[in-house]
Amino acid sequence: MSSERLDRIRLHGDVPGHVAVIMDGNGRWAAERGLPRHLGHREGMKAVRETIAGAVEAGIQILTLFAFSTENWQRPRQEVSALIRLLELYARREREELVRQGVEVHVLGELDRVDDVTRRAVDSIVAETRGGTALRLNLMISYGGREELIRSARILAERVQRGELRAEDIDEEALEDTLFTRQLPAPDLLIRTSGEYRISNFMLWQLAYTELHITPVYWPDFDREHLFEAILDYQRRDRRFGRVESR
Ligand code: FPP
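^ thats the input. predicted complex w/ farnesyl diphosphate below
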């Protein structure tokens, strides 16, 4: 599909290597249509498909989607199970298409909290998409930024206790090596849908110098053109990383 926005992105050339997304607004999308919340999440799956296709077209290398937060476990039991079932359905249904697109799926988060059936579906999508070179897709499931940092503190403390690491040698690199996202560059761009100006406990360490793009669009309505718009917005930014002059 040819897109005027995509042409402009290519002309500029500086495509963000890593894009992270807080997919918000499924519940409101459903409420506005008098539908139950879980149908909003189901519709959100289409937006996931669109975003992945757009990311591949634009040449993004890493796409990280916040699919289920540690806080989401506190939603009503019915909604939690609908969301988890949807993840399992996604893993089963999309496998083939993701392989065809060359998408390598990784699932990051506290996965010991999800049931065995979902775990197996998730494990198989990871195994079957291994080696895809067009895009790395990180699905953040049962993920929370603070919990990730607490986990890192524990891992580092244990290394110190075992005598493998000296406390004075703990630096950014040592900490980054304990994150779920270890060995990945930080996101260049964070997109949040539904117009909320919040980070909501997402990638607290990694987002330190990430450019933010907030759109009022509810997640189920988000499509590749919205992604391209976010990239064009990113291309207008002057990234200084706390310094004076731009790169
Ligand atoms: C936020 O909307 C969205 C979520 C809690 C779940 C995101 C999940 C999906 C888009 C489902 C498909 C994803 C994959 C990867 C299979 P909300 O419920 O907080 O909306 P609201 O703020 O309007 O209530």
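The first helix runs from residue 4 to 12.
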